[in-house]
Amino acid sequence: RPCxxxxxxxxxxxxxxxxxxxxFSRPLSGAGMETEDISGGVTVATQTSSLSVVRGRExxxxxxxxxxxxxDDAEVPPSFRRYVALLNRTGxxxxxxxxxxSLFVIGVGVYLPLQRLLKVSVEPPYGSDSEAxxxxxxxxxxxxxxxxxxxxxxxxxxxxxxxxxDATLDYQLFxxxxxxxDPVDDLTALAEVISLDLxxxxxxYLDRCDFDFYSFFDMCAGHTVCxxxxxxxxxxxxxxxxxxxxxxxxILVHMxxxxxxxxxxxxxxxxxxxxxxVAALSEDWAEYRERRTHDCIETGRSECNVLLQVVSTPYVFxxxxxxxxxxxxxxxxxxxxxxxVLFAMLRNVRQLALVTANILCAxxxxxxxxxxxxxxxxxVVVTAPPMLVAVALAMSIDYSLFLLSRFxxxxxxxRPHHRALGVALFxxxxxxxxxxxxxxxxxxxxxxxxxxxxxxxxxxNAIAVCMSVVVTLTLxxxxxxxxxxxxxSSRKYGLSLDDTPFGSPGLAAQAALPSRAAPDAPSKGDVxxxxxxxxxxxxxxxxxxxxxxxxxxxxxxxxxVWALLGLRVQRHARLITxxxxxxxxxxxxxxxxxxxxxxxxxxxxxxxxxxxxxIKLADTFGQDLTTPVKLLIMAPTQEDGTTLDITGNKAWSxxxxxxxxxxxxxxxxxxxxxxxxxxxEPRDFVGLMTFSGGCxxxxxxxxxxxxxxxxxxxxxxxxxxxxxxxxxxxxxxVYAHCHEDLFSETGNAWMRxxxxxxxxxxG
Length: 763
Prior knowledge:
Blueprint: H1 11-21, E1 25-26, E2 34-38, E3 42-46, E4 53-54, H2 56-74, H3 78-87, H4 90-109, H5 111-117, H6 129-140, E5 146-154, E6 168-170, E7 178-180, H7 186-200, E8 209-214, H8 228-239, E9 248-258, E10 261-262, H9 276-299, E11 306-312, H10 313-346, H11 349-377, H12 384-412, H13 417-445, H14 452-482, H15 484-488, H16 505-512, H17 524-532, H18 537-541, H19 545-552, H20 561-571, H21 573-592, H22 609-621, H23 623-626, E12 629-634, H24 650-673, E13 685-686, E14 690-691, E15 694-695, E16 701-702, E17 705-706, H25 708-713, H26 716-724, E18 731-736, H27 745-760
């Protein structure tokens, strides 16, 4: 066309413009065809009562949305229409409602049993060699005793020690090596008072529990004959680390059984009755610490020179549980805020009831599915339920908002409820399904990570997302079709009695769907006839020629920044794909070297006293105490089919000791080859067959004297064997010590290399 000339409006664009005018128009009075100049230079024509004035700029801004609505209405697949028609029948609705009610009841019923199956400890990765080893270990060894630890710290002048300067290690042949001290120093006396007080708190549980009390100041708890002289040299090194110069000390209690039942770490969390003394003693120690700290602050006495921190398995579990409850409380507060936002967008309290039903059904259905998983498939950590609840809350609210908002928009355009629901399911439902599938797939990829804490939470979150999608696309349409007028009645924000046994259905229908009269749509023939009659085409269909021409020129409506971004991404999809692939390369390379070491710290609160005490315990006395690395060594099967008794077999003991010595050498060589300046020594292994780097069966010399006969005479070797060997005497455990932080790069490399070399050694 000539430069500057306007293109003739097409019949399609004029028909679309007419469709918009009954929504974005202002009527004029008068008869016949008139023209009016509106500010902005837009000329419009009016016609008697059947036409109205349309602003061209408003039409251009809204045309795209209306065209999409018309297209959605015309292109809803038959499958969606059949689905809505199916749910519109009483029988299928009852099936859907019964199914979700059943899942809700089951989820509520198994909630408490699921709590007893949750793991507070960090379990080995599902399907890993560590999991198989732990299962074998649990069959052969009784549960490990519950540990209570009290840390005492010198808080006076720098250099002060909890053990006075007169403490010396005496090397004598008779009695055995021991530490002599004279408790006259103030700090030594205070530390000894703390030890005696903590021991006194245990006396009321002696008739119910069997425990061992380990303190440098008292090694006689639980023993008829006190082996003080034989053990003081070892306890001095264990309870007062040399690198702190005697300014840090520790008191330990191992609770083995109560009321004849073996106690274990989770029994307090599971609220087993026989574990009540364990929880009570932990509380007694914590109260003693608080009382002592309070007296110190109030009176300023000399007790302030020795600080006391308490950490125990029940105390740590309490820390974790409080964190879980705090997370649940945050989810509750977030839900309230989300409902405020939902009300502002839906403006209908009755539809909030639909959202509430979605949330409850999604959460309980997820819990119902997680129960058999926790019971028969894989361990589920205690942090998994709060995470799946948070995900179910977020997704149920989000997806419900998508579906109900589109449903309300379609109803506002005058479509009947079943047609509006079909359009909503086809448009918003597609978005919900794709979003849920993508998010669930992301959570499922986390199952590849070899950490039980992450895998159990990932599985729970994936199930929660799927349940949120299914409940939104089944329960919400079913409930809407069961009472469409009730849930679409928005008079007084749904707080009226409309469409209830106490209200009028007519008012509900009238409030829900205000009628709009619209003229008949002009056909293509009308447009052609108008063109041949000599009238302006815009006048023939009720709009101005200027508005029609502006529309025909293709002036795009205004879009926000996200719409523009989406268009740019779609136009350059190939380039964006290449850029994303390049950005993923560093992460893929890092994933190949992925390693892990984890303990309870990620599950604990950052501000809880038990967290600080737990971290300090690991920093002061080493991670061997909080995160021990143990090797399970099993005796070979003999030719006659019986298992070798390892307790008195000297040949097996020497062979195993030499294997450990070779293992330490191989780990060192492998780490040096990897660029790590680390040396593992045979003394880093502690077990029945090895002590201080030597082989027990070959003797242990202190200077020129072999002291192993004396240790056996004092029953120390027998006591050590009872701890490290199972009752069948066919398996033993060996502790491996790492000089680096297990969570550091070198610590990760040490752990990985130890596993690899152990496999090469036949482990």
